[in-house]
Amino acid sequence: MKTNVKTMLMALVATSMVACSNNQDVFDGGAIEKTAKQSYAENFAKKYPNVDMNQNWDFSSKTPYFSFSNNNGNHAGTRAAVSYDFTEGAKQEVDLNTVEWMKDNLKEGKPNRSLGKAFYMTVPGTEFTIQPIFQGEAGAVWDLHVVVNGVDILLWTKSQDIELQTEVKSEWHSVVDEQAAEGGWEAQRNTLKATAVRSVPYTFKNLPVGADMYFYLDITTSGSGGWDWWDEVKQEYHPWKMYYMNNVGDHMTSVDQMMLALQGFEKPSNVPAGYEYMLIGCEDANLADSDWDMNDVVFLVYGQKIPKPIEITEGTTVYDSRTVRYMVEDLGSTDDFDFNDIVIDVTENKAKTPVYTNGVLTSWNEGETTQKAVIRHLGGTLPFLLTIGNKQLPELGGQSTFQTSPNTEYDVTGWNINSHNISVQVQQKDNQGVYNNVVFPKAGEAPMIIAVDPSQGWMTERQSVPESWFYLPGE
């Protein structure tokens, strides 16, 4: 059952009338706080009349960020989240000899994880290019991402800007055409007798040299498929069966051996002389009955220097960091809804090491877990006490204090990434003994704290956040 803000507003007005009739002392701290919260809720109802109040105010994805030194994933945030530009080039033809090599060596349904191990990379000192060049019979729909120094970059969407030229159709046409969309590139080449394939290269420049980077597939639409599959433990094939793939939001990363740096192929003809190059093959489903053919997408990386893979061995410590950004209204004003009075990033960082069985990554050993908080921005000027989990941070006096020491890290403990046990006591203007206690809202309450991804930038002063912020993805 949905509760809209108009219904809530009527209840608030009634509550306010009862409070007035009780002749509460206007100087009573509890009454002042109650009045401020009532005013805020009434104004929120007027500002966002179409927002469903009966919802979870957590809009964060809690996407893991993997790092390889104990930096807790805490990279300084800005109003416009850190981003790295890349250049989309003109379509260029894929070397068909390379495509044939993919077809011969990454056959559908054949397990190929033995061809490589989990890896990450570091950014070279020169520009480099990434170009998808092959796609197997992948049932799910996904996006290809690259993460650089904790910054997540959407690179390519399945079948985006891929074109074929065939004996059936001499002109170039998209692989998403009705005739060409059935099956993957291998099926398209067999059925339509493709004489050429071309795709878009993406070139990265001026990335931070030496920064950690890795790739992953983000599942955007679950799929299903049928195949014979190989059981690596029992060393036997299982007959054809319909299988359902991963859930939307699952990530297939190079860190957990869902991508391989392939070996044994000749230099593609479109790679300039003297350039380094490599191929990366990907699997889009991390399930016991996955086929592990590692050909759901294969992309080429080349440049004068390229980000070479660094193997994650059994002794390698990987830090799994998940960050939630909290955006707070301190009730100094009850009508601006800029959610920038206090902006805090809280990160949980888990150390883990991989366990391999017969060369295949089968599990992770958990190590130490630490938590840190960073105040990224203060739009409010009122002194406040911030409590995260079991830790109360020292009182901060608003913008002047923050400007002298921005992005200071605080160790915290006991923070729950799902229940959001965070609260703020804000000293009200001209009422030094009165603190408004702001907590993470329950369903049905007007939010004074919201949880978002750390890439979400904050608004300028007294610029209300758009209504679209309060709709969950997919709604």
What does this structure look like?
This protein is mainly beta and 475 residues long. Helix content is 13%, strand content 37%. It has five helices and 28 strands. Helix 1 runs antiparallel to helix 2. It is elongated and about 75 Å long. The two termini are 15 Å apart.
- The secondary structure category is mainly beta
Could you estimate the helical fraction of the residues in percent?
Answer: 10-25%
**Poorly predicted parts:** 8-27, 76-81, 178-183
Tally of DSSP helical segments: 5
Which outline best applies?
Answer: elongated
Q: Which whole number gives the mean pLDDT?
A: 81
Strand percentage lies at: 35-45%
Major beta sheet, specifics?
Answer: 6 strands, antiparallel
User: Radius of gyration, Cα only, in angstroms?
Assistant: 27 Å
Task: Briefly summarize what is shown.
The protein has 475 residues and is mainly β.
What keywords describe this structure?
475 residues, mainly beta, 6-stranded antiparallel β-sheet, 5 helices, 28 strands, 13% helix
Give the arrangement of secondary structure elements.
Elements: H1 5-21, H2 29-47, E1 65-67, E2 86-88, E3 92-93, H3 96-105, E4 119-122, E5 128-134, E6 141-148, E7 151-157, E8 163-166, E9 173-174, H4 185-192, E10 194-199, E11 202-204, E12 212-221, E13 224-231, E14 236-244, E15 251-253, E16 259-262, E17 276-282, E18 297-303, E19 309-311, E20 318-328, E21 342-357, E22 360-377, E23 384-388, E24 391-392, H5 399-404, E25 409-412, E26 422-428, E27 431-439, E28 449-452
Antiparallel strand pairs: 1-20, 2-11, 3-10, 4-12, 4-19, 5-11, 5-18, 6-7, 6-12, 8-9, 8-10, 12-15, 13-14, 16-17, 17-18, 20-21, 20-28, 21-22, 22-25, 23-24, 23-26, 26-27
